[in-house]
Amino acid sequence: MKTKFHFFLIALLACPHFVWSAGIQEGEMAGYLFGPAEKVPEEFNGGFSLYAAAWPLVDTYPGHRFQTGLCGTWMHPQYEPGQEPEEKCYTDIEGGLGWWRDTRFPTVTPKFIMGGVGPNFSWIANGPGYGAGTWEKPRGQYGVAQLSPWLLFPLDGLNLKQGTCGELFGYGYLPLPLTNPKTTTAGKRVPTGNHCWTLFLNTGNFKGPVAFFTPFFWSQATIEHPEWAGKLLDSRPAGPNKAIQMETQHIPAILSKADGGKLYARVAPTSFPVGPDGGSIMLHRVTAYKKAALWEAVQRWFDGGAPADGLVKAEASAVHTFRQGGGSSWSIYPPQTPRDEKVPLAWKSFATAFTPNPITFGYRWNHQLTRTNGSLVILPEYFEMGSDGKKPQWSVISAKDVPPELGLLQHRFERAKEKPQDPRTTPEDSASCWKKPGPAAGPFKARLGDGSVVTYYWYRFADQPAMLNADLTSEEREQAQERVEKLHRAWTKDRNYLAPPDVGKLADLDPALILTPPPGMEAGYVPISTRQELEKAP
Asked: 402: closest CA among 210, 213, 267?
């Protein structure tokens, strides 16, 4: 008697997306890993932070089809029941650690991007000077303003120190009142709020605020859609109970079919960090905040009160605990396969979720099916199509169980041959906002561990291009300038703002990104990247 799985397999082989000609077929592994975080009360709607492990997911960078994030989350606006936008209005902050197809200068060490998404992906801002669109038609390049005077944010994303392997990268977003609310937006009678969602980092060599999304990045959508006014992140709080996941869009794989019809697959060597106890810590101290955690003390300071120390208040914080569980939708399939035809791999046969303490999540590994190489555990590479008794799945097999005539054993996953990446540039027009009023000092060069060179200048904070494109008057920019000068004098880069981790070791940023302002520019000036290119051979 044929089972449902047999009929599914027959349909799978007949599917036009599964082209089973002789030899090796190109494929990929993709999907999500899920972190089972418990909910916290909805009143903790003033931002979040977390510690995520950073490591080289693959041992050889495959090329620009490779795209995957490490563990992270999606921060959406929070609405009261009945206040949600009537039409589709997807908007959030969803950046984090990973690799992206538009990364110009990648290595196996991940980078970090901010990942702000305007309504329905109309704008995307990944960092100062880095976003969607072109400089002729920008769709996010001006959405993030540099705040720190001690950290350079490259145009290609924020670099971690090369060789990072399992250390914890602490980051999060809290709103700061760096601007005031406005009753108009680009001359239209729709309001803009003053939530400057600010990236805070906690790393081994830098701590504190880095950059922020200008409120206009969100509210500019209301010029064409006034019905969205008051419903975007310029003014809305943030939902505290976010998805905690690792999103993988493409890891190279190959597939082949034996003469008897059985399907086999091989995945490019994929690794996770492993500690002395054999486990992998993935996430730690995922925290949601009340707005009072930082905002109120900073607002009083800006209004003439005592300086705020910048330490996020523990009493206004709620740390998510992790329950048992955590699943996977990682699947192996040829490109363009419809979602309902993607076959998952038997993740739980070699990975078991565990919580070494209530606020930490990770995995333990079946050492009969995985192998350890130093501080990394290498996941299974070879699979055959099987069934869990109800549905098809890719089951782990050893190399000796793969028919040698298929060619899977001989295949080498190597970096794709690609043309050298073009430099990332910014406008050179003397009349542009990059030149008028222009920088106060520079150019300077920073040579990064990814092989690129960044050209940067020092701009007065209020004169940086993002602030000139933030729908602020001269008076409004000067008020923000005064507030930022207070921050620069009081908030240094070498003390805690976010609560430190209880486990593990902090990751370092690329040391070349840590700067000292030029004499006389210690307060009120920020470094702005204007060009990034591959280091030229001597």
From this structure: 267
